[in-house]
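Retro notes (design track)

What went well: tokenization of the new backbones is finally stable.
What didn't: we kept losing track of which sequence belonged to which structure.
Fix going forward: every design gets posted as structure first, then sequence, in one message. First example under the new rule, 320 residues:
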């Protein structure tokens, strides 16, 4: 936690905290765990994996909320996706600042029209980047292409094969996770670029945590039908079909039982297990413990903020 860097300018500006109210208004620096670091440039803070950072020809980063030119209730935020409340020019300027914080101004940005699918798009030497296509994962061996995925609770996952020099960016919400988009992306990297999962490194960025992500029992039922290890990423694996043991105790007439309780889904854990299933080594997978909903003052959470939420952007590229 103490490893987070604070720019000298920020340190000079920081005022002593007098009350908890002022503390709530200007949150302290991003609480990051080991294996992670931050880089702050002109008010924009980027979260990075220290392992991926060591690769000299690699660019990668997960955006955070503060900085930027977009505004939510007089707060300047780095919104990096199309949302109703923000202007396209703001998003473009924010993206310039984010790329500049990464030293990636000159790279060509590529993203997809995300549809919560398992569609993987490969950008090889000949693929055109002119038109945005639909899908939820991108992979390339082409230096200079900055692959990006946008999230606000879903899992952003960045993958690199340092041997074959291939990178991928994945957007995995519960639908993409259920459709095994991570396993499919790794499979595509093997097929298209002859990558070996044993060589790959992967970083799972800020995602709504198992602490906050309530889903209906029907989602748990879908997962338990497709994943033998589903109990490892749900707090309780209930499918909604269980008899309610309290039914006769709570004296409610039939048909008036309380609705079945929600269950908690840990998307990061689910996707970490998929990376392992795909053949990555455990020590090569880096998972941030940041929950978008718990840390909404540093990130964006659609669950927490609904339509007033912005979008985070996670990117990866091979330097030219
Ligand atoms: Zn949480």
């Amino acid at each position: 936690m103490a490893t987070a860097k604070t720019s000298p300018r920020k340190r000079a500006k920081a005022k002593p905290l007098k009350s908890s109210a002022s503390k709530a208004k200007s949150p302290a620096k991003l609480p990051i765990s080991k294996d992670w670091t931050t880089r702050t440039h002109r008010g924009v803070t980027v979260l990075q994996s220290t392992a991926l950072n060591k690769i000299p020809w690699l660019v990668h980063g997960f955006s955070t909320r503060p900085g930027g030119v977009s505004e939510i209730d007089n707060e300047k935020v780095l919104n990096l996706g199309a949302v109703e409340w923000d202007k396209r020019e703001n998003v473009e300027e924010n993206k310039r600042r984010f790329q500049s914080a990464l030293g990636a101004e000159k790279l060509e940005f590529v993203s997809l029209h995300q549809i919560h699918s398992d569609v993987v798009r490969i950008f090889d030497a000949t693929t055109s980047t002119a038109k945005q296509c639909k899908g939820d994962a991108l992979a390339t061996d082409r230096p200079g292409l900055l692959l990006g995925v946008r999230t606000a609770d879903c899992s952003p996952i960045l993958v690199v094969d340092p041997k074959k020099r291939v990178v991928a960016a994945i957007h995995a919400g519960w639908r993409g996770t259920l459709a095994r988009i991570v396993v499919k992306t790794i499979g595509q990297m093997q097929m298209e670029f002859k990558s070996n999962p044993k060589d790959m490194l992967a970083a799972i960025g800020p995602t709504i945590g198992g602490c906050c992500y309530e889903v209906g029992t029907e989602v748990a039922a879908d997962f338990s039908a497709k994943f033998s290890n589903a109990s490892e990423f749900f707090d309780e694996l209930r499918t909604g079909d269980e008899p309610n043991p309290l039914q006769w105790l709570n004296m409610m007439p039939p048909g008036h039982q309380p609705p079945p309780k929600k269950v908690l889904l840990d998307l990061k854990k689910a996707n970490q297990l998929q990376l392992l299933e795909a053949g990555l080594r455990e020590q090569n997978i880096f998972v941030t413990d940041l929950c978008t909903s718990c840390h909404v003052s540093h990130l964006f959470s659609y669950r927490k903020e609904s339509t007033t939420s912005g979008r985070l952007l996670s990117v990866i590229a091979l330097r030219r």
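Added context from the reviewer: The chain has two domains: 30-211+284-318, 214-265.
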